[in-house]
Amino acid sequence: MGHSRNRLITHPRGAAMRRTPDEPLKACIKHQHGYFRGEKCQYCSEEGELVMSPRHLDQFGRVMAGVLRHFPDRFELEMDQQGWVAAGEFIESLKHQRRHFSYLTMDHLKAAVETDPKGRYQLVDGRLRATYAHSIELELDLPTDDVPEHLYFACSQEDSNEYLEQGLYPLDRQMVHLSGTRLNALEAGRHIIGKPVVLLVDVRAAEKAEKPIMKAGTTVYVTYEVPASCLRKLPDSA
Ligand SMILES: [Zn+2]
């Protein structure tokens, strides 16, 4: 198709980000190892059956993220306060409004959600939602148990002084997004100009201050705010 892997695209928030490599979505039918992304099943190395081409998966992933995080109204979907929409209505609406999604079934949706590398979606009892990065106001009820003692947030040197004084508040999204590791934080903050500063979040202190933090994705955690008293600069960042 002539486009290279890992090319830079413009992120909706204005930052440049790397695309994940184009991979097909497949199913291991022969040994029933489930859905997977890539050419071969990681358990049996069989090629499996194609569920979605890289192009279809890419198109679908963009629309799903957009609808569930930013514009359910555009697809006439009713979203509740926890971010859920009816999965069947989601599929019907996409099929109805975009002719190139006429092939979509619940199996495609299930496969895309199950294999999402960042765990960004939940599909439970016929309901579907994104677990983070919303620009619409919600009251997410994500798990607060099993959150590690420390989380990380990368920012510019200049912003760090303000955050250390005033705490962390959401800017362009509805919630503050924290990372599970220092490396994940630097990855999330790759658009920062200059040498980034990594802030360490004391999760237990935030819980004591009644600002619980929720687990939203594989390495992403969200909260409404982090008080300044729960933040400190990582010693190894300038
Ligand atoms: Zn297999």
Question: What features would you describe in this structure?
Answer:
By secondary structure, the chain is of the alpha+beta class. The chain has two domains: 25-130, Arc Repressor Mutant, subunit A (Orthogonal Bundle); 150-233, ADP-ribosylation fold. 25% of the residues lie in helices and 22% in strands. The chain contains six helices and 14 strands. The chain has helices at 54-69, 87-97, 106-114, 157-166, 182-188, 203-208; strands at residues 8-10, 16-18, 25-28, 34-37, 49-52, 85-86, 121-124, 127-130, 150-155, 176-179, 197-202, 214-215, 220-223, 231-233. The strands form five sheets. It has a three-stranded antiparallel sheet. The longest helix is centred in the N-terminal third of the chain and has 16 residues, at 54-69. It is globular and about 55 Å long. The chain starts with 7 loop residues before the first strand and ends in a 5-residue tail after the last strand. Mean pLDDT is 89; it is low at 1-18. Zinc ion (ZN) binds next to loops. Zinc ion binds next to loops.
Distinct small-molecule ligands in the complex: zinc ion
Average per-residue pLDDT, rounded, comes to 89
Portion in helices: 10-25%
Counting H and I runs of at least 4 residues, what is the number of helices? 6
Radius of gyration: 19 Å
Number of domains: 2
Fold-level CATH name of the largest domain = Arc Repressor Mutant, subunit A
Features:
single chain; 238 residues; alpha+beta; Arc Repressor Mutant, subunit A; ADP-ribosylation fold; 2 domains; three-stranded antiparallel β-sheet; disordered N terminus; binds zinc ion
